[in-house]
Design brief:
single chain; 259 residues; alpha+beta; Deoxyribonuclease I, Chain A; 6-stranded mixed β-sheet; 26% strand; globular
């Protein structure tokens, strides 16, 4: 059986993560394709030769603003096509979406905006979500087999957050954001982790403001690898890896049959 192992990981600054042992972890061969978000760097500012030495092809899409946002993909399997951005200028200026084709599978690595810094960014987040939804709906017609991974900055249901009652007014768990996730899943997408793991207390992000929060597992599940329904039957395994610690997020994992 031929499979594709994918990891999605918000590294919260790739240079900082590299200093905390990211390359040692990559040497353990955790996946064939590593999608990272919030690189906060341009390729030329990173010792990217280290990724090549480990056998990865590397693709970077950075924000125009230095030290901000940005996504990258490190893959042992050479993609058949790479597309930088979506053509949505405001999003592309912030380096939020990188797309790669592996045969007939379209992989989209996305860093969704956060609304935590105030009303303006929350409004931008809603606009960005609407734009992405329309974009994906069109894309599905051409690419029925898709994977959408990344930091969504949304905890979908109460099971996905340690304190749903205390956070009902918090960006990332607002009714409109959660409704967007409902809409996405109703439009032919599958939450791969939740499909295979119905159990609670599985999170991918913990606030850094209180170091004890991660120890106590008071987290949010805001990182996803979702697939379109034609790939649902191809799901082999999914996981969240909280013991991997180079960031305030941890990696999420998916294994897919490719044939």
């Amino acid at each position: 059986m031929s499979t594709l192992r994918i990891i999605s990981y918000n590294v919260n600054g790739i240079r900082a993560a590299m200093k905390k042992g990211l390359m040692d972890w990559l040497q353990t061969d955790p996946a064939d394709i590593i999608c990272v978000q919030e690189t906060k760097a341009e390729k030329d500012n990173v010792n990217h030769a280290l990724f090549t030495e480990l056998g990865y092809h590397d693709y970077w899409f950075s924000a125009q603003k230095k030290g901000y946002s940005g996504v990258a993909v490190f893959t042992r399997i050479k993609p058949t096509h790479v597309q930088y951005g979506t053509g949505h200028k405001v999003s592309d200026d912030e380096g939020r979406v990188l797309q790669l084709d592996f045969g007939d599978i379209r992989l989209i690595n996305a860093y969704f905006p956060s609304g935590t810094s105030g009303d303006l960014r929350q409004e931008f987040k809603y606009q960005w979500l609407d734009e992405l939804y329309r974009y994906l709906s069109e894309l599905q017609k051409k690419h029925p087999r898709m994977v959408l991974c990344g930091d969504y900055n949304i905890a979908h249901r109460e099971i996905d957050i340690h304190d749903p009652k205390g956070n009902k007014q918090s960006s990332g768990f607002l009714p409109e954001e959660r409704a967007w996730m409902d809409k996405l899943l109703e439009a032919g997408w599958v939450d791969s982790f939740r499909k295979l793991h119905p159990e609670p207390h599985r999170y991918s992000w913990w606030s850094q403001r209180f170091p004890s929060v991660r120890l106590q597992n008071k987290g949010w599940r805001i990182d996803y690898i979702n697939v379109t329904t034609p790939l649902e039957k191809n799901l082999v395994a999914a996981d969240i890896l909280p013991d991997v610690k180079h960031s305030d997020h941890c990696p999420v994992y998916l294994e897919l049959k490719t044939s």
